[in-house]
Each structure stands twice: as C-alpha cells, then as structure tokens.
Specification:
With 288 residues, this protein is an all-alpha fold. The protein contains 13 helices and no strands.
Length: 288
C-alpha cells in the first residue's frame, strides 16, 4: 500500500508541476487562459492538499489559483488555498521571507473584502513589517501594502489614518513607478473615494478624473479597474444630484464587469444595485 500511495503522489506532483507551468499569473491579458485552466488548477490544488505536497511549485499554484478565485468572488475557496499556500511557504522559507509578506497581504485583502477587519488589519501590519525589513521603506511593495492598509482604515471610517497612508503610498509610487503607472492611478482613486466619503467633493473630483485617465491609457478602456473607477465616479455624481452623468457611467461600468467577471460577481452586483437605485430615484423625482 505504501508503494502504491508513493506512486500516486509522484504522479500527482508531476501533474501539479505541469499545471503550475501552464497556469499564468492571473492578469487581464491572460484572463481567458485562466478561465480555461481553472478547473484543472483547482483539481491540482485538491491533490496538493490530499497528498501533502509541500514544494515551491505547489505553493505557487495554490497562490495563483486562490487569487483567480478571489477575483471571481469565490472567497471561501480562495481562503482555503491561501491558507495552505502560507503554511507551505513558512515551512520552505521560514517566517520572515518576502513570499510570506505577499501571502499575508493576499489573505488580508480577502478578509478585508469580507468585512473581517480585525483579522485583515493584523495580517496587513505583519505583511508591511516583513516587507519593510526585507526591502526597505521605499519599495513599490511597501506602497501596495500601505494602500491596502489605508483601504481597511477607510472602510472603518478611520479617515485621518487612511489619508496619511495613501499619501505615503503615492509618494513611494511616484518615485519608484512614475505618475502614469496604473498602480499610481489605483491609489489616486482610493484617495478620491476617501475624500468623497468625507464630503470633500472639490478634492475628490479631480483625483477621480485623473485616476480614470491613467487607467484608461495604461490598461485600456475595457479593463475591470477602469470599471471600478467608472463606478466610483458615478457614485460621486449621483451624490451631487447629477443623475444623467451618473447613469451613463454606471452603464459603462456594468458592461465591462458583466463581460469580464460575469453577472454574479460581487462587483457586478454592486453596480447593478447602484444603477437600480439611481433609476428608482429618477422615477421618484419625475413623479414629484
């Protein structure tokens, strides 16, 4: 029985390595390939867990598959794979490796999305500390980590703390990546949303527009990050009663999300709800 189990494990590891080589880092440009391979990737991840295959390549596949599932809104499945990836990486690299920081950050983002703020904050801070120790305080990875922790604080209404972290993140990104990098645009969008949440519309609007312009130029007009910017700008206009502009932006955002993520993704559902709310408001206002 032991020999047979060993043989099956060896076969499984070979399959895992092949799938890891074929499954790309989930990005917009290769999303279609990820869709084609996701069933094979998740099956391979099940074999990793079943046979206890703890290698660099198995951790890589777990991380990539988890990220794709997270982006598809399958949070419970993603969480399991992220946790297993982190467990393997700690065994291979120890507790203080940058790979550990990245995995902690990914798991924290998932928890933040689910509203598990205490768990997310602890992991974000741990990740940030590891990155600062390994890479120094001006590396782009630090900027991403600061942006993510700021997003958590924004969600909790801790606006002053969030603003300081966004500003730090932007300063690092401007130096390391330049003002026209899409990640710079991401943080601009998030800072705009922070000002928007506080009713500081004069500060928010130009940042929203600048972020959208950067993302459209660098990512293309049909990228899901562009859809996020469109949705946020639509919410901004809706809050000021500019319903026509808001409706057009919601519709553009919805087309992109439905095409890229499908109708049942949380981002798509959010835009649908926003558009329905706006349309109900317009009907009500016309009846008065």
């Amino acid at each position: 029985m032991t020999d047979r189990k060993t043989t099956w494990r060896e076969r499984a590891e070979k399959v895992i390595n092949r799938i890891n080589a074929a499954f790309p880092n989930p990005e917009f440009k290769n999303w279609g390939l990820c869709e084609e391979l996701i069933l094979s990737a998740t099956a391979a991840c099940e074999q990793i867990i079943k046979f206890g295959i703890e290698t660099e390549k198995s951790a890589q596949l777990l991380s990539k598959t988890a990220y794709f599932l997270y982006e598809k809104g399958k949070y419970n499945e993603a969480e399991l794979l992220y946790q297993k990836c982190l467990f393997i990486q700690k065994k291979i690299y120890g507790e203080n490796n940058p790979y550990i920081a990245e995995s902690l950050n990914n798991l924290a983002e998932l928890y933040n999305t689910q509203g598990k703020y205490n768990e997310a904050e602890s992991l974000f801070k741990h990740s940030l500390k590891l990155w600062e120790t390994a890479l120094g305080k001006n590396n782009p990875s630090i900027a991403y980590s600061l942006n993510n922790l700021a997003g958590l604080y924004n969600s909790q209404g801790r606006y002053n703390e969030a603003e300081l972290l966004y500003q730090r993140s932007l300063a690092i990104m401007e130096t390391a990546l330049g003002k026209n990098h899409p990640d710079f645009g991401l943080t601009l969008n998030n800072l705009a949303a922070l000002y928007h949440a506080q009713g500081e519309y004069a500060q928010a609007e130009p940042l929203y527009h600048r972020s959208l312009a950067i993302r459209e130029k660098t990512l293309g007009e049909n990228h899901p990050d562009v859809a996020l910017s469109l949705n946020n700008l639509a919410m901004f206009y809706e809050a000021q009663g500019e319903t026509r502009e808001a409706e057009l932006l919601y519709q553009r955002s919805l087309i992109i999300f439905e095409s890229f993520l499908g109708k049942n993704h949380p981002n798509t559902e959010t835009v649908i709800a926003n558009l329905e709310r706006l349309q109900t408001r317009k009907v009500h206002e016309n009846l008065i």
